[in-house]
Amino acid sequence: MRKRVIRVRWDNSPVAFERPELLTLEHLESLAEALRERGFPIVYCLRPGLTDAEMDDLMAPLGLSLPTEARVWWGWHDGAIAERAARIGPNWWFAPLTVCVDDYRELREIADGDEVLGEGWWPSTWFRVVIGDWALACDTNVAPGEPTPIRAWYLEDGAPSEVSLPSLGALVEMWTDVLRAGAWQYHAEMGGAAMHPEHLPDRQWPRYLP
């Protein structure tokens, strides 16, 4: 797999990491393996993936088209069937595309109806790839075959001006690294996952990681 070193800004500190340019099924299978090793039940309730035609039908009413990496994401699996068991790490719900479409409509209604927030709070080209307290949104305004930048921020803080990660592939690889290091672990007795920051492979991981 061809990789390159990309400088990304996490917690306002530029750090050099090797990151794949585009998300692939190989990255996703590595993520699934890491989730399975850490006991995450999401691997047992994943839905079948969507076809390109099914994705286009769902996105058409929004006037958007999913970028290549997002098509790989929902083409792999269309989220998971149970929200509580469908978590990647402690907080991220891998939601079906229909749920993310409804989420986009709600966010745009808030942005359109609030003169203070406005378009800058949720630009019309941003689309969430997972659901959580933090927004992890891909930019749909990219050419086919190009990486889609990921922006991450706490919704109450307003939208960021800078790209948080260069691609969805970079995000998935980051999750996989954290799982393999043991910084995310599922605890059946708790019925959920917990963060173990002492196992983080790098202390400069972003504060939105959980």
Account of the 3D structure:
This protein has five helices and eleven strands, in the order E-E-H-E-H-H-E-E-E-H-E-E-E-H-E-E. A hairpin with a 3-residue loop joins strand 5 (87-88) and strand 6 (92-93). The strands form five sheets. A three-stranded antiparallel sheet has the order 7-8-9. A two-stranded antiparallel sheet has the order 1-2. Strands 3-4 form a two-stranded antiparallel ribbon. It is globular and about 45 Å long. It has 210 residues and is α+β, with helices and mostly antiparallel strands. Mean pLDDT is 82; it is low at 1-17.
Mean pLDDT: 82
Terminal residue distance: 28 Å
Can you write the helix and strand succession as a string?
A: EEHEHHEEEHEEEHEE
Q: What gross morphology would you assign? A: globular
Helix tally equals: 5
Q: Which consecutive residue ranges, at least 5 long each, have pLDDT under 50?
A: 1-17
Give a count of the beta strands, DSSP E runs of length 2 or more: 11
Helix content: 25-40%
Strands side by side in the biggest sheet: 7-8-9
Strand residue content = 15-25%
Query: Which structural category fits the helices and strands?
Result: alpha+beta
Give Rg in angstroms: 16 Å
Largest sheet: 3 strands, antiparallel
SSE map:
Blueprint: E1 3-10, E2 13-20, H1 25-37, E3 46-48, H2 52-59, H3 68-76, E4 77-80, E5 87-88, E6 92-93, H4 97-113, E7 126-130, E8 134-139, E9 150-154, H5 168-181, E10 184-187, E11 192-195
Antiparallel strand pairs: 1-2, 3-4, 5-6, 7-8, 8-9, 10-11
